[in-house]
Amino acid sequence: MAADLRSVTECAIPQPVLTPVTEFDPATRDRIDRSGMGTFYGQFEHAPGLIDKWFAFYQPVVNDSSNLALRTKELCRLRIAARNGCMFCLGGRFRDADGVPVVDDEDVDAVLGGRLEDPRFTAAESAAMQFTEVYRLDHSAVDKALVDATLEHLTTSQFVELGLCIAQFTGMGQLFAMLGLPSM
Question: At the fourth CATH level, which superfamily is domain 68-184?
Answer without folding.
Answer: AhpD-like (1.20.1290.10)
